[in-house]
Amino acid sequence: xxxxLFTSFSTPTLMGLPIIIMIIAFPALLYPTSNRLISxxxxxxxxxxxxxxxxQMMAIHSPKGRTWSLMLMSLIIFIAxxxxxxxxxxxxxxxxxxxxNLGLAxxxxxGAVILGFRYKFKTSVxxxxxxxxxxxxxxMLIIIETISLFIQPMALAVRLTANITAGHxxxxxxGAATLALFSISxxxxxxxxxxxxxxxILEFAVALIQAYVFTLLVSLYLHxxx
Amino acid sequence: MASVIRGxxxxxxxxxxxxxxxxxxxxxxxxxxxxDFTPTGxxxxxxxxxxxxxxxxxxxxxxxxxxxxxxxMVLAACVGFSxxxxxxxxxxxxxxxxx
Lengths: 226, 99
Fold this sequence. Notes:
The complex is a heterodimer of chains A (226) and B (99).
Chain A: H1 2-7, E1 13-14, E2 17-18, H2 20-25, H3 41-58, H4 69-85, H5 98-119, H6 121-126, H7 138-181, H8 188-202, H9 205-224
Antiparallel strand pairs in A: 1-2
Helix pairs in contact in A: 4-9, 5-7, 5-9, 7-8, 7-9
Chain B: H1 2-6, H2 28-33, H3 51-61, H4 69-85, H5 87-90
């Protein structure tokens, strides 16, 4: 049972070849594109959703921050679609791997921070010291703020990994428990209901994407504009 | 003219437009080298894998009255494919009395 639990998170191989590249590229096929102004239903729905998310996300940014729109929209669509595809049975979710999440988090965070330090040095450095601190606390506080700055990309990556992995594991476990209790009954109805509830709550993995991009966004905003 | 002397008939359809099954064996190397396949299809570059993507899309997804059927066939194929990939680990999880 122990080995079975974590094998679903191992890198998928097809006869020894890692096909993870195909699995990462697969969600892109589900979003059709067209050159027309008005298209079919699925494209209209897709356009509507993307416009909704875009306006929600980019409203608080200055024009300079809005140059990041394409990047952030691609990010949220990638994470949302990989997480939702991972809810299908037996599929592999790339975002359960810490390597992929670190690869997303570190460059984006570093870009935002470097941008802030390059163009608005004083403002960026002034974030390390909140207003009105007592003089004796200053060295301590600067150290704490620096640590909190450097922990941001780690927090972004680990948050996403841990949430998705924990959700998948929990579903595996509770599913196995339900199956085992089926022959013993009485408590099966309750556990099946818990599975259903958990799956619904796990579909708020999309909310996690929102959290991901939003925190990234807030960091960008903070370093770029004010 | 030289090809007629050698006994081959010149093809009426230009070489570029032919599909693989229509190309003669002697013409195969030049056909492969002249392959102009990348900008074909209806929505040219956005289709990542050329004609196959367009064919599926136009037949099952881009119909007049759309529903979930077109996309869900792809997702079902995805589930089936992933099941085949992880069959080796799943073999032990069958419903039996003694494991």
